[in-house]
Fold each of these.
Amino acid sequence: MTEQKFTSEFAEGGNLLERAGASEMFVEFVRRYPESNVASQVRFWIKSGQLADDNAEAGRPHSSGYFFDMLWDGNYEEAYQNADLENRRRLDDVL
């Protein structure tokens, strides 16, 4: 999947992520920062079939680290405390 296709797919509502239970904050983070490690993990899930139309309702395929998980859950405070400086700036921008 190309970066452009990935970005346009999530610009249309991030429906796979939303159906899998991702917070609005997570979806917005992935939309705004397709070059981030968070978006890279989502791309991997999609490319490998771990997150697809037929299994999205099953939820997040697996844990991807504490920052990722807190972002997924929409827990801003915990995500922020566990983010590196770059991701803190990104979180400030998302909110």
Amino acid sequence: MGAAEQLQEYFTYADYAKWPEDERWELIEGVAYAMAAPSRQHQRVSFEVGFQIRSHLTDKRCSIYSAPFDIRLPNHNEADDDVNTTVQPDLAVICDKNKLDDKGCRGAPDWIIEVLSPSTALKDMDKKRWLYERHGVQEYWIIHPTDRWVMVYTLKDDGQYGLPLMFGMDEPTAVGLFPELCIDWAFMQEA
């Protein structure tokens, strides 16, 4: 099956947990999506951004995790086995340690970052945007390494993202959750 193709069957976390560990999949509302291996540029961007965030979080209560790291997004008080949405965003910042367990994270991270790849762009910009909004992810960044822009969604008081803010990578981008942190894109000159 090709990258980001989907299986036409309904799956839950109980099914997902039995799949081979050397294959990367995501479940979105019961639909399984295969995930291609990331490109070198994708990995570089993810690593560099993750490193800047990690350096900032050293004295904070929040932690950063990178893919593959399972984030289960249950509907209400669903048992883990019944959860039909498990994603592996490129980067996730989680400030509530009670959401962390040996399986990964149960519930919405505070901040999710996706680095666009041709095979996942539509899913990241559409399906995941609505999914993250519905589950209460406070800040959602979509990074386009080729066109060199970042799209920032911030959850409003009404529980919706509204229109995103768009930033070029010619200057650092401020992080809403951590006002003293700005992501410096200088590394993109070499990416």
Amino acid sequence: MKKDILKHQLVPEHVVLNDSEAKRVLKELDVHPEQLPKIKTTDPVVKAIGAKRRDIVKIIRRSATAEEFITYRLVQD
């Protein structure tokens, strides 16, 4: 029986950005995709959400103190 890792309480929400969202985020942050922190194509969450190489993933971490912290990762091999 497989567990859905996306439902685990310690795994933050991951969302693959579409092209227009990715362009907006890169412009807002004033960075090139290669300047973003990386996440591997072999990462279990990347596989679970169907992200592909060169996709940008938005990670939304929730906490009692910071409420919501958003970060972005570039998927790479």
Amino acid sequence: MIENFFWDLIGAATIAVLGYCARLLKENRRRLALLGTSITKQKKRIRISAAYLFRIKIDERYLLILGGNIDQYQPVGGVYKFFPSAKIIREELGIERDTKFAEGPKAKDDIRITLPGKNLLKFMNWFDARIGREVDTWREFHEELVASGCLSVQNAIDTFEPEFIKRAPTKVQYKSQMGMDELLVFDIYEVILNEAAEREIRAAMNGDDERRFILVEETDITRECVSVDGVSKNIAGSAKWVISDGR
């Protein structure tokens, strides 16, 4: 009986260990993929863009804005920024600014960068530690909705309670437009507008001849295009990550 109990105990322990390892592997498969890339592409430079995007819905449709760098509609949001305290880590990891898009003083600390592939995992470990970089999401919300005149400061403050939804499960892919591999990091937040904010945004859209803001259906996002005043307009591929899918 004691011998049977012993083997039952060993069996239960083995199952528990294997289950734990399976969960650990599942939770860290993205890290393992990044580690693999760090090894296989260690001498190549990889582009990284790390941003936060907002899921904002009005009448069950998604609010998108016209992009500043590319003529397409995209979710409200933007890239995170480095803080001055990140100077050392930027030097240690060989981080360089990616200047293919916005330049100038406002963009100089954007986490839109390139670095040696060997440092990819180290960078993501630093990024996920949330030290030395922007973690608050108010800046882009204010810039794109308040500073643009779409939403008043008071209504923005009253309705701004961003809830983190997910990290988009992206991976390193070759981007022909950039001529290099890139990793796009998207943190998705949801902001549920109060009635006053909804009314104000609707009024702003009705008086916006430039169509800077639009509401689109999920099918428009899936197709990555929408008809605006009879003209077909592109929707950024990143918009698919804000679609409500239970997360």
